[in-house]
Amino acid sequence: MNKFVFVAASMMGVAMHGHANEDIAQQANYNELGDLLTVSQAQGRFDWLAKCYDGLLVEIWEQMYNTTEIVPKEQKLNQLKALWLTPDKAQYLTFANSDFTNPYGWQAGNSDAQACSTMPPEYVPVALQTTQLTHEYCANKSFDNEWEWIEKVTVEDFVHESLSHDYTAVSGKVITLPAGRTVKMSVTPGNKDPQYPSYVALRVWIDWNQDGQLAANEIVYKSASDAPFQFTFDVPTDAADGVTLMRVASDAGGGSDDACKRTLYGEVEDYLVTIR
Ligand SMILES: [Ca+2]
Ligand SMILES: [Ca+2]
C-alpha cells in the first residue's frame, strides 16, 4: 500500500505544476494515456474503483484529509465521490506506470458492471482528469501501424508530436478554435522507411454539432500524399460553444469517410477541441 502514498502526491504534482524538463516529458506521455471519459463513464470509474480498489481510494482520502479521526470507510468514499463527481462535470483517476507510458495498455474499468482486473504491480494513479466530452465516440484503430503512422499534428500554435500507435487519444490538452475563423493545420506522417515515404490518405473530422457522431459532412480535410500535409479549414460561424472531438486518421490503405470504419495501415488520433 505504500506506493499509493507517493501516488497522491505525484498525481497532484502533475496536475498542478510542471516546470522541469522531466515534467515536460512526463506531461507529453500523460497527454497520450488515452483515458478519455464521458461524465457517466467517470461515474462508472469511481464505482468500479470502489468495488475493486476501495483500499486505494481510502489511501487517497487519507492523503487528502490527513486526519487522525476515525472515519468509516463508506464515509471516506462518499466524501471523495462528492468531491469528484457533480451532475454535469466529473473527475476521474487515470493510471499508468511512474513514467506515464502505460506499457501494458491497462485501463481501470468505466462501470461497476465490468469485472475487476488486476493493475500491473508498478502502476499508480498518475492523474486526476476532468471529463470534457459529452458523448462517447465510436472506436477506431488501425490493423497495422508498423510502417505508417501519425508523427506530428499542428493546429495554429498547438503542436502534438507522438510515436506510432494503432490509436491515440490525446486526453491531456485541448485545441481552441474560434467560430468563423480559418485555421491552419498540418499533419506529418511517420514512415518506417523515411527514404521511401508511403502514399497515405489523410482525413480529419470535427464533430461540429456535438452530437457524438463524426459525420461525412464533418470531414474538414481529405487528401492523399507521400509528403506532409499542410492545409486550412474553416470553423463554421454557427459552431456551438463547448468541447468536442477531432479525429485524424492516416491510412495507406485508402481509408474511409466513415470515421468508425477500421483503418488498415496507419494510425487514428483523437483530440479534444474547444469552440469559442
Ligand atoms: Ca502517433
Ligand atoms: Ca456530428
UniProtKB/TrEMBL annotation:
Q: Which domain of life does this protein belong to?
A: Bacteria
Residue span, GEVED domain:
202-274
InterPro entries (UniProt xref) = GEVED
Q: Tell me what this protein is called.
A: Dihydroxy-acid dehydratase
- Which species is this record about? Pseudoalteromonas amylolytica
